[in-house]
């Protein structure tokens, strides 16, 4: 079986931006409450939030199936390289994996409530994003909730700078979604890969924030995650 259509369905090339969100939240928590951080939770929470992200991307293609037939006929479900039934199973498994890992976190109840909010936001966006321009705010909220899930799962408390980081990504994601929406409205793609580059730059935004709040060395981490995203996008489309 060719795995590339599955990777494209999940937009797997964009995952380094999610990992950088998790890393940023954990670094900021460590600065404010060092005793709350056990670093083995970084790969676990990265996996959980990656599962939510990929599950959301699969659900997005399921909701957009009819629209993609006319406007994006290269998508895996439309081409038939991945069946609708398989996509439904994959989405369910990914979301289940995300919830399972969060349930193991130090603050299970708070983490699961935040994860449920993330899941609901993802589902709402996928359902309405082709119907209303207000969905750009929902997309921004979904990205911000990545930080909230990490924060709640590890501390069950609201820490200022983690909330600030979530707000910064909310604003950036809002701008990215506006640019992407305008591309659809104008009816033709931009001259270059504007949207993939903006998606990759999410990691750099986190790196810049950590460079300001913690140490300049974190800018290198953001740049590395951005580069990793761009390399991945050369093999699997991220938009």
From TrEMBL:
Pfam short name (any one): UbiA
Protein location: Membrane
Domain of life per record: Bacteria
UniProt main location, coarse: membrane
TM helices/strands, residue ranges: 12-29, 41-63, 84-104, 110-128, 135-154, 160-180, 201-228
Record carries keyword Transmembrane: yes
Keywords: Cell membrane, Membrane, Transmembrane, Transmembrane helix
Signal peptide, first to last residue: none
Membrane topology: Multi-pass membrane protein
Official protein name in the record: UbiA family prenyltransferase
């Amino acid at each position: 079986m060719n795995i590339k259509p599955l990777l494209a369905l999940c937009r797997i090339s964009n995952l380094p931006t999610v990992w950088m969100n998790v890393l940023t939240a954990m670094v900021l928590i460590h600065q404010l409450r060092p005793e709350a951080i056990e670093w083995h939770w970084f790969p676990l929470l990265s996996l959980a939030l990656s599962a939510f992200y990929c599950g959301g991307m699969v659900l997005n293609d399921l909701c957009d199936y009819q629209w993609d037939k006319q406007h994006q006929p290269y998508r895996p479900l439309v081409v038939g390289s991945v069946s609708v039934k398989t996509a439904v199973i994959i989405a369910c498994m990914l979301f289940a994996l995300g919830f399972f890992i969060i349930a193991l976190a130090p603050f299970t109840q708070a983490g699961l409530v935040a994860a449920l909010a993330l899941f609901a936001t993802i589902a709402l966006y996928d359902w309405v994003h082709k119907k209303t321009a207000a969905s750009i705010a929902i997309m921004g909220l979904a990205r911000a909730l990545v930080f909230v899930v990490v924060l709640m799962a590890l501390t069950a408390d609201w820490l200022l700078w983690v909330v600030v980081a979530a707000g910064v990504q909310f604003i950036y994601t809002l701008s990215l979604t506006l640019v992407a929406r305008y591309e659809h409205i104008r009816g033709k793609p931009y001259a270059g890969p504007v949207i993939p580059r903006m998606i990759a730059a999410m990691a750099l935004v986190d790196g810049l924030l950590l460079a300001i709040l913690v140490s300049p060395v974190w800018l290198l981490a953001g740049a590395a995650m951005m580069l990793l995203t761009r390399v991945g996008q050369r093999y699997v489309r991220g938009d």
